[in-house]
Amino acid sequence: MKQVLAAIASVPSEKGTILLITNYTGDKLHFGLAAERALAAGFAKKVVVLPATDDVSIGRSRCEKVGRRGLAGNVINPERGFVRFSDNDDTVLLINNYGGLSNLELGALTQETLSQLVDPTNLEATVRLACERAIKSEPDLTKWDMVMGDGDCGEAVKGVCEGMSPII
Description:
Largest sheet: 2 strands, parallel
Distance between the termini: 36 Å
Structural class: mainly alpha
Number of domains: 2
Number of strands: 2
Helix content: 40-55%
Shape: globular
Number of helices: 7
């Protein structure tokens, strides 16, 4: 919550602040509390929490009964974030922790990824290889997530990788 309050305080606006978040219970709780504290502390005159609810990693037919969930990437997805990007815009890299990595591991992953951004060809080859390996690992990922989670992890990862592979 400290980070959210710091972010709100760092970009003051007379018109208000929109917190575009993923539609997870924990996010809604923590960002909602941060919004209330920001108002009480006078960091902003108006703060609105807007949960994004479209999960592009799972096909519509597979989730029609329960609906799609929000993912971190929806904030920078031009079709969902209502932002138009052009070829000359800077590149954004979003690294999301789905809860399985420690802060140390996530930091190491981020640093390694950033070090490879110097050469786009290297990054393309790395992402392509990661997608190929993730697709092949789908049965194991699904099996492990059925034991430790809700069983959709492998299929979601495979779906993302299959969607990314043709456009890499």
